[in-house]
Amino acid sequence: METNNKTTPITAEKDRNSISLDLMHRMRLHGMSAAFSESLQATFAETMTPDSFLNWLLSREWDYRAARNIERLVKNANFRYDDASVAQIDYNLPRGLDRNQMERLASLDFIRKGENLFITGCSGTGKSYLATALGYEACKAGMRVLYANASKLMGTLKIAKNKGTIETELKKLEKTQLLILDDLFLVPLDAKERAHLTEIIEDR
Q: Which of 120, 167, 173, 185 has a CA that sits 20 to 30 A from residue 199's CA?
């Protein structure tokens, strides 16, 4: 008879700690199992009460899942830069950046309020980096983000229109809580592209 990882019987030959670790792995409690393994190699757990120990295990599992969720959101966002960070923004460069304004934007209230944000400036002044840094903050807050070159996105929507899948693509964009359009208006949009852009903005 075939069995899977979740239905395989527990063998009595294992000690209780091994059984606990086995069950944690089967239930995909990877953060908890890592923490429990650490506790077996140290003595700090002996000083903890049962409820404190359980709270510690659950906190480690929560942190593990939160970190994995952020990794997934960052990967799906398709950012242009891998290391953009609000904390690493250089305010000494002569480009008119206001630290207080950036910190207010990093609170992400503009996303929660459904407001649009335009970052303008000369070429090479770090507009894409700033947008990406805010995108990373949104991912860390558990928000769905998509970073896209505006021209390429419009081209993708044109193809989807011809294939009859435009509604599916637009719904994906609608579910994105922060949509970053890089190089918007760098290349003039035709009538169809303007219509798509208007629809995207109105749906948000």
A: 120
